[in-house]
């Protein structure tokens, strides 16, 4: 490893989410902000929403039901 070319590694950095959650991490930056984290992401919270644009879900379900019959 060469000397004086690598950024300083901070062991007490924090990640702040838009929902208000704060996570301690190690990083080359002292503080970072993110828009979504594991505490507010729909996949992890179980609040997933399916957005139906122009009836695509119904069209898919109708095609799938025709194949199973």
Write out key terms for the chains shown.
single chain; 69 residues; alpha+beta; Rhinovirus 14, subunit 4; three-stranded mixed β-sheet; 25% helix; elongated
Structure, explained:
The chain has a three-stranded mixed beta sheet with strand order 2-1-3, with no helix packed on it. It is α+β, with helices and mostly antiparallel strands and 69 residues long. The longest helix has 13 residues, at 56-68. The radius of gyration is 22 Å and the shape is elongated. The model has no long low-confidence stretch (mean pLDDT 85). The termini are far apart. The chain has a single domain, classed as Rhinovirus 14, subunit 4, CATH 4.10.80. The chain contains two helices and three strands.
Q: Would you summarize the structure shown here?
A:
By secondary structure, the protein is α+β, with helices and mostly antiparallel strands. It has helices at residues 42-45, 56-68, and strands spanning 10-17, 22-27, 31-34.
Rg from alpha-carbon coordinates? 22 Å
Proportion of helical residues: 10-25%
Q: How are helices and strands ordered from N to C?
A: EEEHH
Number of domains: 1
Shape: elongated
Termini distance?
64 Å
Summing up helix and strand content along with how strands pair, one would put the structural category as alpha+beta
CATH class categorisation: Few Secondary Structures
Poorly predicted residue ranges: none
Largest sheet: 3 strands, mixed
Please give the order of strands in the largest beta sheet.
2-1-3
CATH topology: Rhinovirus 14, subunit 4
The CATH architecture assignment turns out to be Irregular
Number of helices: 2
Number of strands: 3
Mean pLDDT, to the nearest integer, reads 85
């Amino acid at each position: 490893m060469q000397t004086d070319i690598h950024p300083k590694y901070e062991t007490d950095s924090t990640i702040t989410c838009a929902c208000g959650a704060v996570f301690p991490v190690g990083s080359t930056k002292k503080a970072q902000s993110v828009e979504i984290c594991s505490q507010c992401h729909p996949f992890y919270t179980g609040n997933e929403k399916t957005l139906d644009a122009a009836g695509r879900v119904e069209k898919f379900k109708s095609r799938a039901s025709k194949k199973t019959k």
